[in-house]
Design a protein that fits this description.
Blueprint (H helix, E strand, L loop, with lengths): L7 E2 L3 E10 L2 E8 L4 E8 L7 H19 L9 E7 L2 E7 L6 H8 L4 H20 L2 E2 L8 E4 L2 E4 L6 E2 L20 H4 L6 H17 L9 H10 L12 H7 L10 H13 L10 H13 L2 H4 L2 H12 L5 H4 L18 E5 L5 E5 L5 E6 L5 E4 L3 E6 L5 E5 L2 E2 L9 E6 L2
Antiparallel strand pairs: 1-2, 2-3, 3-4, 4-6, 5-6, 7-10, 8-9, 11-14, 11-16, 12-13, 12-15, 15-18, 16-17
């Protein structure tokens, strides 16, 4: 065990094991022995050869990193418990969140479905709203600073944050932030504002949808050059989120989406397309036809049967009996299909699904084992099937046809 791992800070915070390292220091898994709870401890290492004045600036920035989230008690911002000066350097004690970052999820799984990104974006808008109302600008929103703890989305790392009432701690002409996610006006030397954070949110959502941020290039200077001189590329996988992402990535901050407009567009995207009238389902059409024909069956005889069959075939999609019968026959239909909004069963191990409630929790984000099934009875659901040939799918009791290998299908469902 290293000397650091034996260290106890302020006689109560014991370092247990190292979680990870970054440019500014190390994050430790710790234990608060006074309150008997797990904590995360960020050890900030001072750069070498700092002048006394720069050391003071560094300490002030550290205290600001702790104070910013400490003022913002909300589910979507990491909670800070304490700041300790030990061995000549500062340590920040925070709540322990054992969850991957958005950056890690993108690296592991590739681009995320719009429904998942919408859920993440909505939570981050709430976090930014809380920070901005308190006069705090984050200035470094990016996927590595977003933790995904189940349905909870947590914004972390306020190391570059500043409040409207504090003095700037950045040297003139010294660029701070992550070039791939920084707003154009900040990269050009202007002061960061809440709308700068909204640009960073747009770049973060873009990266989640496309697998990389919009202006990322081979090095910092090339990235900043692209940010200054190139048009914002249109996202290819955003679907209903396109207007949200492009609105947040408007280079002119005065034309950029405001927080309220971003929330409105995002909620519209989560709600799905609006139509004046919903066409009746095939079952409903068949019921009406049977009712009409039964009234005239005495005079029509066998012709009534032909009329029923003909009108059923004119209905959009297969009949309920045909739709609910997979290749194996009716007995192969999972239990609960008739009353569920959505049922998914894996045909093989490539059946990966993502299911969420619009503007609500994520219900599933998993790969099913062969023959394993999931049933969802919620009245409104967004779902993504990543390989339409690997999953049997029933929507409102009707079996959907299989797709081709690798075909991704999106569903916005309402219980009928």
């Amino acid at each position: 065990m290293s000397q650091s791992e034996r260290l106890v800070l302020a006689t109560r915070y014991r370092l247990v094991s190292e979680i990870g390292q970054g440019a500014n220091g190390t994050v430790w898994r710790g234990h608060d022995e006074l309150l008997d709870r797990a904590v995360a401890i960020k050890e900030l290492r001072l750069p070498e050869n700092l002048s006394e004045n720069d050391r003071v600036v560094f300490y002030r920035r550290t205290l600001r990193e702790a104070r910013a989230p400490a003022q913002l008690r909300t589910h979507s911002i990491v909670e800070v418990y304490d700041v300790v000066i030990e061995q000549g350097r500062p340590w920040i004690v925070m709540e322990m969140i054992e969850a991957p970052s958005l950056e890690q999820l993108i690296e592991r799984s590739g681009p995320l479905p719009p429904e998942r990104v919408a859920h993440i974006g909505r939570a981050l808008l709430d976090a930014l709203s809380t920070a901005h109302k308190a006069g705090i600008v984050h200035r470094d929103l990016k996927p590595s600073n977003v933790l995904l703890d189940g349905d909870r989305v947590v914004l972390t790392d306020f190391g570059l944050a500043f409040s409207s009432g504090s003095a700037s701690l950045t040297k003139t002409g010294h660029f701070m932030g992550s070039p791939a996610y920084v707003a154009p006006e900040v990269a050009a030397g202007e002061k960061a504002t809440p709308r700068s954070d909204l640009w960073s949110l747009g770049a973060t959502m873009y990266a989640a949808l496309e697998g990389r941020p919009p202006f990322e290039r081979e090095n910092v200077m090339a990235t900043l050059s692209a940010l200054a001189n190139e048009s914002t590329p249109a996202p290819q996988n955003a679907g209903a989120l396109t207007s949200v992402v492009t609105g947040l990535l408007e280079k002119n901050p005065t034309r950029r989406l405001s927080h309220a407009r971003a929330v409105d567009r995002l909620e519209r995207a989560l709600a799905g397309p609006r139509t004046g009238r919903r066409p009746p389902t095939p079952r409903y059409r068949v019921a009406v036809v049977i009712g009409l024909v039964s009234a005239t069956v005495a005079s029509c005889g066998i012709g009534a049967t032909a009329l029923i069959v003909g009108m059923m075939r004119e209905s959009p999609g297969p009949s309920p009996t045909e739709a609910s019968s997979p290749a194996g026959g009716v007995q192969d239909v999972p239990a609960g299909v008739a009353t569920s909004t959505l049922v998914v069963r894996a045909r093989n191990s490539a059946c990966k699904i993502f299911v969420s409630v619009p503007d609500g929790p994520v219900l599933s984000d998993e790969t099913l084992r062969e023959s394993e099934a999931r049933q969802y009875d919620q009245p409104r659901i967004n779902a993504v099937i990543y390989d339409a040939s690997a999953c049997d799918v029933w929507v409102n009791g009707l079996r959907k046809p299989l797709g081709t290998p690798g075909e991704r299908r999106n569903y916005a469902l309402n219980k009928q």
